[in-house]
Design goal:
single chain, mainly alpha
């Protein structure tokens, strides 16, 4: 019953929100289409503004990965993190996640394909993916788009939140599923 209800809610959520916006606009006598076009125009302007920041973060990520620095760092951290329940397979995900959501998703997909979704690595990778954020991406793209240049405190807080997310993800996966 619950699964059927949730399936119906998820199927109808977007159409109902869309219809609600249209009805609200009609009631308030708002030209919804012109407001939509204004928002789309503003969205395009923002996309053009953030494009250099997006390109720079992807170039930096490519250099980090292709230079071998990511593999070297993962190998260096493996002996320290393995006793804590962090397999070496998951280390690249932990390193890429603060940099790129798409890169992290690709690593997670590969871990799931190679280890299976019900494996310890698969569960840990999925939990890590959902418990952390793309700190450097956020700082470069969003802060850059609005002209914020002094990011020191935001960087520290963002990275601390990522570390806490990693630690709690490992702790909860070990608690709920155990280490295999």
């Amino acid at each position: 019953m619950f699964v059927h209800t949730m399936d119906a809610v998820s199927r109808w959520a977007i159409p109902l929100i869309f219809a609600g916006i249209l009805i609200y606009g009609l009631i308030r006598k708002i030209d919804v289409y012109s407001v939509f076009l204004d928002g789309a125009k503003e969205g395009m302007e923002i996309a053009v503004k953030v494009l250099p920041y997006v390109v720079s973060i992807f170039v930096a990520l490519g250099i980090f990965r292709d230079s071998g620095a990511m593999a070297l760092l993962a190998r260096g951290l493996a002996p320290v993190l393995h006793p804590l329940g962090v397999p070496a397979d998951v280390l690249p995900l932990m390193l890429i996640r603060p940099l790129s959501g798409a890169g992290a998703m690709a690593i997670t997909a590969e871990l799931l394909r190679h280890n299976g979704p019900d494996s310890y690595v698969g569960r840990l990778a999925s939990t890590l993916q959902g418990s952390t954020d793309t700190t450097f991406y956020i700082l470069s793209v969003y802060f850059g788009a609005v002209g914020i240049r002094r990011i020191r405190h935001a960087l520290v807080v963002g990275l601390l939140a990522d570390v806490l997310g990693f630690v709690l993800a490992v702790a909860f996966v070990r608690l709920v599923f155990g280490v295999k």
